[in-house]
Amino acid sequence: MKLLVRIFVGLATAHFASEVMVQAADPLPSWRDNAPKQAIIAFVEKVTREDSPDYIPLPKRIATFDNDGCLWSEQPVYFQLMFAIDRIKQLAPQHPEWKIKQPFKSVIEGDKGTLAKIGKEGLAKLIMATHAGMTTDEFSNTVKGWLLTARHPRFKRPYYELVYQPMLELLAYLRANGFKTYLVSGGGIEMLRVFAEDVYGIPPEQVIGSSIKTKFELRDGQPAIVRLPEIDFIDDKEGKPVAINKFIGRRPIASFGNSDGDLQMLQWTAAGKGPSFCLIVHHTDAEREWAYDHDSYIGKLDEGLQEAKQQGWTVVDMKQDWKVVYPFEVSD
Amino acid sequence: MKLLVRIFVGLATAHFASEVMVQAADPLPSWRDNAPKQAIIAFVEKVTREDSPDYIPLPKRIATFDNDGCLWSEQPVYFQLMFAIDRIKQLAPQHPEWKIKQPFKSVIEGDKGTLAKIGKEGLAKLIMATHAGMTTDEFSNTVKGWLLTARHPRFKRPYYELVYQPMLELLAYLRANGFKTYLVSGGGIEMLRVFAEDVYGIPPEQVIGSSIKTKFELRDGQPAIVRLPEIDFIDDKEGKPVAINKFIGRRPIASFGNSDGDLQMLQWTAAGKGPSFCLIVHHTDAEREWAYDHDSYIGKLDEGLQEAKQQGWTVVDMKQDWKVVYPFEVSD
């Protein structure tokens, strides 16, 4: 972890410094003074002021965040798929059979047309070939190595730099007000845990995600946890409230998402007895980030947007409501 | 929860008061000054003194505790089975078919001989009939009601009073030294969460246990999580390190158990790179509690005791090492 910590240090320092310093002045400096920012601050003040009728005691201040498209970007494809693709290429010399076997053939040849049509089954094959068959420690080390070397195709930067500055401020603001912040992602739990603490300030025990099965065994007398090529849980849609109930055992009072995959998490949050806050990040900024919603293959947002309007949830218009998208826009 | 909180308040007050007050003097007043107490204190001082070569930073101070037989008693049968039996009797009028169907017939008739031989399949039937088919909220309320009314057959007291005073002090002592304390139990996660916070000071998000599957659905437009009659995960033996890895994502530095079901959790803890502490509670006190180990049907301790000797883990001789077993011995 030390190497990763060093690399992340610029990002992390800015981030944690803001956690301490910024609160006195404007807690959300990268947010324009529009409705979403006002709604966030009004909610936090309402549930944390001890004389408020909506006061919520500390242990119940649980906030859950989706990751892909909510805390970091998810285009042109989920970053975890980019990891799988890079890893397949790296492992290819040890797997000569992949040259004639799909979906590996398309990955190795960079055949994006065929790759776009591999479907869920093909995707599962890529994931299992790259995420299973090693110990948990080995997998973490592979992910760390990838994060340090891989570059995003559009921005030519490490993937962990494509996080949203306004959301980092929001995480810090909530924590400064006694909230416990959780990741609840469709992404792989063990991949998320490699960077969530350094990048988001979210410790491993507050990371929830999709998982494959694992097995405890003694290898030469040494205990190891081995990753098996079998899906354990998909933390998406109906899976999100199920996982929140399993891992946290309390209902969140605030939830943040960006796609229809987050809808059930927001519904579960909104249906709590006391005050609650639901927010959807709407990707409207093709220039600084990407613009997509109801017809997108990745991060489809259709039902969620309709329900947000009906229920009065907060919708962030990325282009209008955020002064800054990525930290590097201000720090470079 | 409020009713339960009121009922638990005597216990909880004593417990949390000790958390604050007792640290200055003796942090473990119910422990005799024998080897286990000395080993606990030596370990905690070693990993928390900033000038110690074995210093461990706060986020890594994870301690995991088994529940049955480690924090509360487990005789004459696991308390969760007592809940299932009481619940079957309560539900029997709505299930006339149970009168002629095993294992329900034996439960209703109080036929302990047959009940003792129901095996895993019979047990699973009892669990599913009493733990599934309702929402999570309904199940929690049922458990609360049972905890408030049920009495242990030997002590004629609520089950939650059969917790070990020395272990409550140990939990408080570890937390006062920056440890995050977790339950890692073979018992049902949603049952444990009903009382773990009030009785042990362990919040729901730090409770890990066995689980059945659940499903998110809209009931009359209202989101609900429904408990299904299907095993999700058994948090015992090899399952314990697997669950620790899944829920916490960090390796504990201290683990506490009492049976062979805890062995793999202790092995996983002991195999960490830095300093670690493993402790086994040995039930040796037939007078104040129970005495059992290698040939017990419940809480069998055989392999674990052997490995403890080989590895130099701490073994608590309940009769010799604990001045007090239950809180009511001193508070009544």
Provide an overview of this structure.
The structure is a homodimer of 332-residue chains. Chain A has 332 residues and is an alpha/beta fold. Chain A has 14 helices and 8 strands. Chain A has helices spanning 2-21, 35-48, 79-91, 104-109, 112-115, 119-131, 136-149, 165-176, 189-200, 239-247, 263-270, 303-311, 318-321, 328-331; strands spanning 62-65, 180-188, 207-219, 222-233, 254-257, 277-284, 291-292, 314-317. In chain A, strands 1, 2, 3, 4, 5, 6, 7 and 8 form an 8-stranded mixed sheet that branches. In chain A, helix 1 (2-21) packs across helix 9. The longest helix of chain A has 20 residues, at 2-21. Chain A is globular, with a radius of gyration of 20 Å. Chain A starts with a helix and ends with a helix. Chains A and B meet through helix 9, strand 3, strand 4, helix 10 and helix 11 of A and helix 9, strand 3, strand 4, helix 10 and helix 11 of B.
How is the topology of this model organized?
The structure is a homodimer of 332-residue chains.
Chain A (H helix, E strand, L loop, with lengths): L1 H20 L13 H14 L13 E4 L13 H13 L12 H6 L2 H4 L3 H13 L4 H14 L15 H12 L3 E9 H12 L6 E13 L2 E12 L5 H9 L6 E4 L5 H8 L6 E8 L6 E2 L10 H9 L2 E4 H4 L6 H4 L1
Parallel strand pairs in A: 1-2, 1-5, 2-3, 5-6, 6-8
Antiparallel strand pairs in A: 3-4, 6-7
Helix pairs in contact in A: 1-8, 1-9, 3-6, 7-9
